[in-house]
Amino acid sequence: MQLWLIPVFPLAGFLLNGIFGRRASKAFINTIAIGSVLLSFAWVLKTLLGLGDLTTPHIERYFTWIQSGSLHIGFDLAVDRLTAVMLLVVTGIGSIIHIYAIGYMAHEGGYYRFFSYMNLFMFFMLTLVLGANYLILFVGWEGVGLCSYLLIGFYFTKKFATDAGNKAFIVNRIGDFGFSLAMFLIVVQFGSLDFGTVFPAVPGKSEAALTTIAFLLLVGACGKSAQLPLYVWLPDAMAGPTPVSALIHAATMVTAGVYMVARSAAIYTHAPAAMEAVAIIGVATAFFAATIGLAQNDIKKVFAYSTVSQLGYMFLGAGCGAFSAGIYHLVTHAFFKALLFLGAGSVIHALGGEQDLRNMGGLRHKIPWTFWTMMCAGVAIAGVPPFAGFYSKDEILMAANHHAPWMYWVGVITAGMTAFYVFRAMFLAFFGKYRGEAHPHESPAVMTLPLAALALLSLGGGYIFKVPEFLAPLFPLAEEGHDLGPVLISVAAGLLGIGLAYLFYVARPELPDALVARIGGLYQLVYNKYFVDEVYGAVVVNPVVSGSREVLWKGVDVAVIDGAVNGVGSSARGIGGVLKLLQSGYIRSYALWVALGSVLLLIVMGVAGGLR
Amino acid sequence: MDAILFLIFAVIAVVCGINVVVQSHPISSAISLIGVMGSLAVLYLLLGAEFLAAAQVIVYAGAIMVLFVFVIMLLNAGGETGRGRSFLAQLLGAPVLIAFLGLMAFFVQRLFPGTEMVQFGAFHGGTAQAVGRALFTQFLLPFEVISVLILIAVLGAIVLARKEFDR
Amino acid sequence: MTGVPISWYLILSAVLFSLGVAGFLFRRNIITVFMCIELMLNGVNLSFITFSYHLKHVNGQIYSFFVMVVAAAEAAVGLAIILTVYKSRGTLNIDDVSSMKN
Question: Quick check: A585 contacting C, CB < 8 Å?
């Protein structure tokens, strides 16, 4: 089936654009970049159609990568139903976003660099998804982290962009550390990293070992998927171009953590404590991020916190045992979140770079395509039936309800807040009077057509792509029936959120300010993201930096290491200075040394000869 | 007979040796050194080294010491004057010497416990015939080498000394 | 008395050698120092010849012969050097010839 072609097409695009792109024409760059991703998508379709049922995974082993003692790690790619879902999302949404980016980045410098990085990202993401063992997955994991760093810091002349890139990479590294430890433990426990070897052997291992592995994997997932406490890099990642935010930080890279947890479902189901932790982290992150999103004024930051919140939902689903619900939400979230970001990009592009919601307004007549497509995304994310978000969110909330009702209620409140802040952004941007100074103009077709495609997916995607049924061979469907009551409550929460947003921002625009005046302190706390970044800076970053500077640099490097090296030199000089005194120039003292030496020699010979 | 001869000439040698070290004018040291060499020649005779005893008197006492005396005369050096500046030698010299002598005596006593006696006439291998035979057969190469050495020394001495007197 | 213990000769040789070393260390006149070197060489010669007797072999005497020849050559060259030093520095004090210091 030549699975390797799927990641290699974008890799070829990266190499061609990277090497030749600087002097090539835009048409060349576009063709290579978009063509490689579309080719990859086409190949995915061909492969999936050709593989048929896929109840058992289709594995292709290429060569032995590591052979060390009894550990054998091959370069293997595998496709099963879960992989198929991820492949379609990555290549499909990826293609759409690449096409959009042609229009968005048309006036930006470094055009070829952008597309080569994007293609490199696709290569790594596809490697991650196709990997048949943890090590290939980790290669892709690290690679997407690298591309995220490169793309966040794409405008590398701006310090806040490069700082954001550093932050993303470093925080991800913490998660990667946990992932690495988990992999080491897996090797120790199972003797292999191969999915096909590890997962069937899980029931026989001790729960303590499995729980430790699962916790460490969770640390990795928290880093990559921006969960508490490692979510802080995602809002700052909005410094990158909007297509990057859409592709990497909404649809694909951040979902890698969810994918990895779902892939390791066998381990998690046998480690209930870790699964509980997944659920708790998920629901806490969802709630926490939603509260911050309520008060943000930058349109991309609102959607960034929304992403963190929705990722929390996916983790909640996985933690409650409904792995397929988590993946379902991953798919629908890809549709409407990518659309929200691309739409926001369209708005920003229309306003010539304005991102602050307070300087927008009344845009629905000026940029209608953008408006209507974003509305589709809005109703989808709010969980209004029968659109995409409703189905997936409903599945998760049902699972939460059966697992632990308090999680269900928190999820419902979060759903309400989600609807509220998304529609707050909508109303502030598209309704009322225009408060800014630019000349809004609609985006070109190359940008609006992808928006339309994503809008259709957001509306009908949940209905058309029944992901849980598709994944049933991997993750058995829950047997419990659907109670109507909780469903209605969650839908009502969403509608209530929309209604409140309408009230606050369309009907009675003076209400928000009045409310802020009443709860000023709380608002400041939420607006400043609970000062989490500042706390991290004081507690973690500053001690590490000053520790490195004082102890490691000045103390160890300068004093100890340089001191030792310089000390050797200066002590050689010192010894030389002392020995120099022997050369006194007086012949008699030379004779004395000779005589002394001969006496010593006699003593030595006598002692050695045994004469005492 | 042997013991008396040995004692007499050993005492002469030691006394002259001490004199070499102790006298302030070099010429006195030179004369004392001639005395040492003479007594040593007698001791060589006692040990059966006839040829070497003759060589000692002719070469050492007769040529080398004469050279010394000529140089002393030429330089017209007076007695020793001035303070020495090497305190280390004076401080450590005596202990080192005593240690050296003590060790040597000790080792000699251990190695040669006194059973073997030196008798005049007991060793016949020191004749000129024996020395010549060994010199021209077994030690031919060193013999030729030191003849070259003497040649070089002569040349060196002429060059060094000539520079001063030729100006 | 029929003979002399061989160790007496060796001890005499050691004594002469030590006297030579003592003179070398404690005297300041170059020529005197040189003569003490000759004294040391004589002491060693006696030792060689004693061992030649002890081993009943002529080799020790041959070595002694060579020592004498070398001492002659050395005396010739050494005295020439002393002459040169005296001409250039005007002193026969061994402590004044210390330009090789450090």
Answer: yes
